Amino acid sequence: MNGLPEGRLQGIVAGEGIRGTIFVEDAAVLAQSAFPGDQYVLRVQAPACAAAAAPGMFAHIRCDPAVPMRRPLSIMRASPTAGWIEFLYKIVGEGLRHLGSRRPRDTLSVMGPIGRPFEPHRERPRALLIGGGVGIPPMIFLAERLAQEAQEGWRPLVLMGSEIPFPFRARPSRIPVPGVPDGVCAAMPLLESWRVPSRLASFSGFAGTHAGYVTDLAARWLESLTDAARAEVEVFACGPSPMLAAAAALARRFELPCQVALEEFMACAVGGCAGCTVQVSTADGVAMKRVCVDGPVFDACAVFGR
To answer: Which fold has domain 7-114?
Structure first.
């Protein structure tokens, strides 16, 4: 797919219900910020992708002319009006190392948005968003969209876990979260500015964080809720597979619906190569589904069992 010209890809994506349009754009780099742990936040001008992006979707980026294969990156934020999209990534491998060297006014080929997004249900307005490591970006995107619709009753809570420094300067939260252990006060300032409560978890001893798994922190919060409040909760998660399995188990324990965004290596990202397939339970039995177009968002029970 690397030789595709700028424009639209139509009819390529074979995923059921995903026969929309994927755009290929020459996107100008607007900003690139470095954070500890070889983490970067990249913002590019890609108006067509930004207009169609939804939380949980991703883009396939050509990191450098010297690197032929594109890299899939979850979309962390998108502004349909200003026309930019933003990514958080950690350098793993030569391709992303090249991407980390790109500077404002450089141009990147961006193909997106791709995939099946999260689908929050209005009857469950207490959205519990769990992000681990490079699985944090879709949670930020989803939190922002729910915050923009706060008048409709959404009440998201974002819990994030990381064993390397978080890609932002954490601050004590000014938004109380009943049920969270005393002393767990570290929060993401951007989410605070949106009036979305957040809390952090880590085994690395960062100030104000929960000393343990982020899913254990989620369990503490869920245990504190009344039955009526818990019936309004829906879980959304993205991160390493063990964390997603733990989130799925947590949802089963509390009998909650749970959507997970899977991370998988992929080549074409549009369903042609079938290199990113995972085993999924369906009404017709076990099937192999492509993470790029059948996902990346799946029902947690379908992937991790009931």
So the answer is: Elongation Factor Tu (Ef-tu); domain 3 (2.40.30)
The CATH number of 126-256, from 3.40.50.720, 3.80.10.10, 3.40.190.10, 3.40.50.80, is: 3.40.50.80
Query: Domain residues of the chain, as ranges?
Result: 7-114, 126-256
| Among the listed residues 275, 253, 248, 276, the one whose alpha carbon sits nearest the alpha carbon of residue 264 | 276
Token readout for 75 is 């979309």
- Pairing label, strands 233-238, 258-261: parallel
The DSSP code sequence of the chain is -TTPPSEEEES---STT--SEEEEEEEEEEEEEEETTTEEEEEEE-HHHHHH--TT-EEEEE--TT--S-EEEEEEEEETTTTEEEEEEE--SHHHHHHHT--TT-EEEEEEEESB-----TT--EEEEEEEGGGHHHHHHHHHHHHHTGGGT---EEEEE-SS--SS--EE-SS--TTSPTT--EE-HHHHHTT--EEEEESS--TT-EES-HHHHHHHHHHHS-HHHHTTEEEEEES-HHHHHHHHHHHHHHT--EEEE-----SSSSSSS-TTEEEEEETTEEEEEETTTT-BEEEHHHHH--
pLDDT tens-digit profile, the chain (306 residues): 333 344 544 333 334 444 457 999 999 999 999 999 999 999 999 999 999 999 999 999 999 888 889 999 999 999 999 999 999 999 988 889 999 999 999 999 999 999 999 999 999 999 999 999 989 999 999 999 999 998 899 999 999 999 999 999 999 999 999 999 999 999 999 999 999 999 999 999 999 999 999 999 999 999 999 999 999 999 999 999 999 999 999 999 999 999 999 988 888 888 888 889 999 998 888 989 999 989 999 999 999 986
Token pair listed for 271: 């369903």
